[in-house]
Amino acid sequence: MGSQFAVGVDIGGSFIKAGLVDDAGALLSKSVRPTLPQRPADEIVADVATLISEVIEASPADRESIAGVGIGSPGPLSPTRGIIHRAANLPTFKNFPLRDRVAEGSGMPAVLVNDANAAGFAERWVGAGHGADNLVMFTLGTGIGSAVFVDGRVLSGGFENAGELGHMIIERNGRPCSCGQRGCLEQYASAANIVRRVSEAMRQGADSVLAKIAGAPEAITAKDVAQAVREGDSLAVEIWRDACAALATGCVNVLHAYNPRVIVLGGGLSGAGAVLLDAVRQSLQAQVWSLHDDLPEIVLAELGNDAGIIGAAGTMLQALANP
Amino acid sequence: MGSQFAVGVDIGGSFIKAGLVDDAGALLSKSVRPTLPQRPADEIVADVATLISEVIEASPADRESIAGVGIGSPGPLSPTRGIIHRAANLPTFKNFPLRDRVAEGSGMPAVLVNDANAAGFAERWVGAGHGADNLVMFTLGTGIGSAVFVDGRVLSGGFENAGELGHMIIERNGRPCSCGQRGCLEQYASAANIVRRVSEAMRQGADSVLAKIAGAPEAITAKDVAQAVREGDSLAVEIWRDACAALATGCVNVLHAYNPRVIVLGGGLSGAGAVLLDAVRQSLQAQVWSLHDDLPEIVLAELGNDAGIIGAAGTMLQALANP
Question: The pTM is what?
Answer without folding.
Answer: 0.94
